[in-house]
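Shipment paperwork, digital attachment
Item: protein structure file
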Amino acid sequence: MMIASSLSAPMRGARPIFVLLLAMLLAACGSSPKDYSAATPLSDIHTQLKVKPLWAVPTGEMPEFAHAQLPVAIYGQQLFVASGMGKVRALDSRTGKRLWSRSLGEVLTGGPAASKDLLFVATREADVLALDSHDGSERWRHHVSSEMLAQPAISGDLLIVQTIDGKLTALEAASGKSVWMYERSIPTLTLRGTGAPLIADGRVLAGFSDGKLVSLDVATGKLQWEATVAVPHGRTDIERLVDIDGLFQDVDGVIYVASYQGRVAAVSADSGNIIWARDMSSYTGLAVDKTQIYITDTKSNVWALDRHTGATIWRQDKLQGRDLSPPVVVGSAVVVADYAGYIHWLSESDGQFVARESLEKIWQHFQYQWEDEEQEDQGFRSVTVAPLVVNNTLYVRDNTGALAALQLAAN
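Attachment content:
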C-alpha cells in the first residue's frame, strides 16, 4: 500500500510519493509490506476439500510497486498476463501452454483486459495500448492524463479507463479515439491506486478517493448519481483517507462496495441510495454469492456479511497480518491468498479452514516443465491481486510471476 499527494500536477503520469507520510501510514495500519514478523503463524488445519493443481508456469515478474494491478484476464480459452517490465503473454487456459509472447520494452502498470480481438494494457508513461489478442502486435496507442493502475472495463465498442488523477475516459476500442471524459477533484493525499470501473446495465460504476461511488451513462459519460460510501474523519490528511480502491460488485441491482477507513455498503444501482452500511476498512475489495458478502479488511480478517442487512455471519481472524488478497468464491468455499503464497479455502458457512495449498510447492512440482522460461526467485510469493475464477478453476498469480491453475478434486 502506498500513498500519493496530488499537490503537484501529474507529469507523464507520475505523481510524487512522500516516503515519510508512507511510513506514518504504515505505522498507523500496524504493518509493513516487507516486515511480516507480526503476521499470525499458520496452524494445522483439518483438510476437508482436496485441491488439485492442474499446471503452473512463470509469466514474468510483477511490478515492485504492488499498488499496480496486473491481474490475469481471460477471453474464451485464452488467458492473458502482463509483467511489470513489459512482457505480455497469451496462454491456453486448460494447459498453461504459451500461445504467444511479446516484449513491449515498457514498464506496465495497468490491465490487461481482453475482448475477442483486442487486448488492452497501460504503461507507466500513461499510454493505453491495444494489442491484437491473436499475436500481440500493436494496433493503436492513446496517451491519457495519468497512470492507470487497474484493469480497464470493456463495454461493446468502448473501453473505459480510470486514471489516478480522478478521471474516467471512454475510448473507441477499435481506434483509441476519445469519446467522453468524466473528471472529479481528488483529495490532497490518497492511497496510490484506483479500483477497476465496472459496467452494469448500461452504466459505468466507479469509486474515487473521496469516498464517492458514481454511476455514469456508458454511452455519454453523463452523471446519473453519486453515493457517499465514506465520509472523511480526523484532523490529518492521513486520518481522512477514504479511497475506494478495491473490487466492488453489482448483483441483482445492488452495488456492494467498501472503502479504506470508511464503510462497506449496499447501494441501489438505480438511484444511488444507500440500502445499508456499516463501518469497515478495506482497500482490496469484496466478493459476493447468492446470500453473502465476503471481504478482507485492512488487518487481514476475513468477514462474511449478510447481503441484505450487512450483519456479520462469521469472521475468520487467524490470518491477521498476512496481507491477504481480495477474496473469491469457488464452489462452496471462499478463497484468499497471503504474503507467503499460501492459498486458503474457507467454508462459506462458518469461515473454518477446509483446505490450504502452497504456491512454492506447486512451483517446485511443475518447475521441470519450464526449461525454456526465465524463472524469478524473489523471496515471498506474495499475492496482491484477486485470483480469477472461471468454471470452478482457480487461477492465482504471485508477485514473482508464478501463475497456477487449481481445481477442487472430485470426491
